C-alpha cells in the first residue's frame, strides 16, 4: 500500500500473531510512524503461566491458544486449573470438552473464592493494553483515539460443520455479495467469532474495528487496480485476486502442504478464474471461491513464509511504510479509511 500525507485521529493498530504482535501508532501513514515488533500475547502469557508454582486461576477473555493452551494443559498435570468461561474458550469453544480435560470452569461471580484460596491469577486476552499504553507513554506517545486489531479466528462452527468450512464460508459470503474490501471489516461483536468478539469487549470505550489477520495483510498490500496478493503465513497460505477494491477470487490452504509446484498451479487457476473449492478443501485446505478472472498488474507477497514462493513467478515483496513486518498493521490503519468512505 502506498504511503500518504493525510492526517487522521491518533490510531493504534495491533496485528496479533502466534509469534509476534506487530504494532503501529500514529496519525500519519508514512515511514516515520511509530512501529514495534513485540512478542505475541500468547507467548507472554504462556511465560507467566509457566512461572506459576501451584494452583492457577485464569480470568479475562478468549484469546488465541497455541502456547497458552499448551502450557495450561501441562500445568494441569500437577496442579488445579480454574478458568472463567470466557477464558476457557481459549482452550476450546466446547466448554464440556474443557471440563473433560480436568479444568474447572466457573462464572465470574465465583472468582473471588479462588483468589481467597491464593490461586495464582493470570488474566488472558489478545490485547495487553495497559502494558502497551505504559510503554508507549514512557516515550511521550499519547493514548490513541481509535484501535484496530487483527487476529485469526476460525469461528464457532455449528455441530457437524468443519472448522475449515466455517472459517472459509465468511470469506465466500462476502465475495458473493460483491467482495468490497470494506465488508471484511468488523466494527462490533459478531456472535460468530469468539476471539474477535472478545477483542471488542477488551476495546470497550474506544472507537475500534477488527479484521481477520489474513485480510489485514491484504489491505496492507493492495494498491488498487487488478492485483494478486499472497500472504504466506506460518499456518495458513492465502491468495486473493482483486479488482477495483473488490476481492473477486480467493483460496486458503495450509502452508505446510504447499510447495512450489502447488503454489504455481493454484495461483494460475486463481488468475484464470478456474480454481474450485473441492480441489483445495479436498487437498486439506480451507477452500476456494472465484467469481471471475483477472489480468494482474502485479503479484504482491507478504508473510513470514514468503520465501517459499517459486522463483520463476514474477512477484514483488510488500514493504508498506518501509517494513514488511508492518503489512497487517498498515492494513488495519487503512481499514478505518475504508469504513469511513
Question: Please, could you describe this protein's structure?
Answer:
This protein is an alpha/beta fold and about 350 residues long. The protein has two domains: about 10-40 and about 150-340, 2-Layer Sandwich (Nucleotidyltransferase, domain 5), CATH 3.30.420; about 40-125, Rossmann fold (3-Layer(aba) Sandwich). It is about 30% helix and about 25% strand. It has twelve helices and 15 strands. The protein has a six-stranded mixed β-sheet with strand order 13-12-11-10-14-15, with helices on both faces. A five-stranded mixed β-sheet has the order 3-2-1-8-9, sandwiched between helices. Strand 10 (about 225-230) and strand 11 (about 235-245) form a beta hairpin. Helix 1 packs parallel to helix 2 (about 65-75) and helix 9 crosses helix 12 (about 325-340). The longest helix is centred in the middle third of the chain and has 14 residues, at about 165-175. The protein is globular. The chain starts with 10 loop residues before the first strand and ends with a helix.
Give the biggest sheet.
Answer: 6 strands, mixed
Total number of domains: 2
* CATH 2nd-level architecture of the largest domain: 2-Layer Sandwich
Q: Rounded to an integer, what's the Rg over CA atoms?
A: 20 Å
Amino acid at each position: 500500500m502506498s504511503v500518504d500525507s493525510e492526517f487522521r485521529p491518533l490510531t493504534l493498530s495491533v496485528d496479533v500473531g502466534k509469534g509476534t504482535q506487530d504494532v503501529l501508532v500514529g496519525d500519519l501513514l508514512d515511514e516515520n510512524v511509530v512501529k514495534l515488533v513485540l512478542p505475541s500475547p500468547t507467548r507472554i502469557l504462556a511465560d507467566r503461566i509457566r512461572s506459576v508454582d501451584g494452583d492457577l486461576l485464569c480470568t479475562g477473555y478468549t484469546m488465541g491458544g497455541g502456547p497458552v493452551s499448551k502450557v495450561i494443559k501441562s500445568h494441569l498435570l500437577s496442579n488445579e486449573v480454574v478458568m472463567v468461561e470466557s477464558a476457557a474458550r481459549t482452550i476450546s469453544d466446547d466448554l464440556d470438552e474443557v471440563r473433560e480435560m480436568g479444568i474447572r470452569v466457573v462464572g465470574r461471580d465465583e472468582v473471588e473464592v479462588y483468589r481467597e484460596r491464593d490461586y495464582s491469577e493470570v488474566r488472558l486476552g489478545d490485547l495487553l493494553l495497559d502494558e502497551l499504553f505504559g510503554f508507549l507513554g514512557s516515550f511521550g506517545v499519547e493514548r490513541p483515539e481509535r484501535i484496530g486489531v487483527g487476529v485469526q479466528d476460525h469461528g464457532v462452527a455449528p455441530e457437524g460443520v468443519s472448522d475449515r468450512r466455517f472459517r472459509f464460508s465468511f470469506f465466500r459470503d462476502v465475495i458473493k455479495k460483491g467482495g468490497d474490501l470494506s465488508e471484511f471489516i468488523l466494527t462490533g461483536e459478531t456472535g460468530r467469532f469468539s476471539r474477535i468478539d472478545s477483542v471488542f469487549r477488551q476495546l470497550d470505550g474506544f472507537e475500534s474495528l477488527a479484521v481477520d489477520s489474513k485480510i489485514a495483510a491484504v489491505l496492507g498490500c493492495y494498491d488498487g487496480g487488478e492485483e494478486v496478493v499472497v500472504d504466506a503465513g506460518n499456518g495458513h497460505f492465502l491468495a486473493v485476486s482483486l479488482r477495483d477494491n473488490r476481492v473477486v477470487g480467493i483460496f486458503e490452504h495450509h502452508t505446510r502442504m504447499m510447495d512450489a509446484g502447488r503454489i504455481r498451479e493454484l495461483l494460475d487457476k486463481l488468475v484464470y478464474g478456474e480454481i474450485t473449492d473441492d480441489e483445495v478443501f479436498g487437498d486439506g485446505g480451507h477452500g476456494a471461491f472465484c467469481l471471475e478472472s483477472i489480468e494482474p498488474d502485479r503479484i504482491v507477497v507478504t508473510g513470514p513464509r514468503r520465501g517459499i514462493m517459486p522463483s520463476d513467478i514474477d512477484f514483488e515483496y510488500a514493504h508498506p511504510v518501509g517494513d514488511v513486518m508492518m503489512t497487517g498493521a498498515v492494513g488495519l490503519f487503512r481499514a478505518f479509511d475504508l469504513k469511513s468512505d
